[in-house]
Amino acid sequence: MDVICRENETPAPGDLLFNPRDPQKTTRIPESAVLEPVRSIVMADGAVTEPSPSLREMADRCQAQLGCLAEGVLRFDDVLPYGVYLSQGLHQLRMRLIEEVQKGYK
């Protein structure tokens, strides 16, 4: 499962999440989940902030991450959907923006 959140949010086990395609469908981050932040600043003021990993390091990371996925999302037939959810803060921002746009069209 992936959680997309706002910059100032830190998701935690037990947090309520929203399906981006159907906000009425919700789930919670499992209590046993191990959360790994993947955002980082790679450029600042037009300069690279840290050296890029080598091709071997990138391949190794990719292989390790694929190993974390359920078998059902990796197969070619009868594929299981991979869950991507919005945090509560991002969901609230999204709903507010949709409401503001809809008010502007009336």
Could you provide a short overview of the structure?
The protein is an alpha+beta fold and 106 residues long.
Main sheet: strand order:
1-6
Give the end-to-end Cα distance, rounded to a whole number of Å: 38 Å
Work out the helix count. Answer: 3
Mean pLDDT: 93
| Uncertain stretches of 5 or more adjacent residues | none
Provide the helix percentage.
Answer: 25-40%
Q: What order do the SSEs take from the amino end to the carboxyl end, as H and E?
A: EEEEEHHEH
Radius of gyration: 18 Å
- How would a textbook summarize the main sheet? 2 strands, parallel
> Which structural category do the helix and sheet elements fall into?
alpha+beta
Care to count the β-strands?
Answer: 6
Global shape:
extended
Strand percent estimate = 15-25%
Account of the 3D structure:
This protein is of the alpha+beta class and 106 residues long. Helix content is 31%, strand content 15%. The protein has three helices and six strands. It has helices at 55-66, 71-74, 88-104; strands spanning 2-4, 16-18, 26-28, 43-44, 47-48, 84-86. A two-stranded parallel ribbon has the order 1-6. The chain has a two-stranded antiparallel sheet with strand order 2-3. Strand 2 (16-18) and strand 3 (26-28) form a beta hairpin. The longest helix has 17 residues, at 88-104. The radius of gyration is 18 Å and the shape is extended.
